[in-house]
Design a protein that fits this description.
mainly alpha, 2 helices
Length: 63
């Protein structure tokens, strides 16, 4: 059986986690498909803002 070398860096794992959490939040929290899509996209946006904001805070804190 061939060995699969599947390696993700920290950024890719964070984006994948944000995408999956946003999808689940959108599906379980809203009633219509349009509301689900809007909420999922909005939560994904907030995840991205939070990740980049925390990244900059850590960068500036270590200078």
């Amino acid at each position: 059986m061939p060995k699969i070398n599947f390696s993700l860096n920290h950024f890719e794992v964070t984006m994948l986690l944000a995408l999956l959490i946003s999808a689940v939040l959108g599906v379980v929290s809203k009633k219509t498909d349009r509301e689900r899509l809007e909420y999922g996209l909005r939560s994904m946006g907030w995840f991205l803002v939070t990740v980049f904001g925390m990244g900059w805070l850590m960068y500036l804190g270590h200078r």
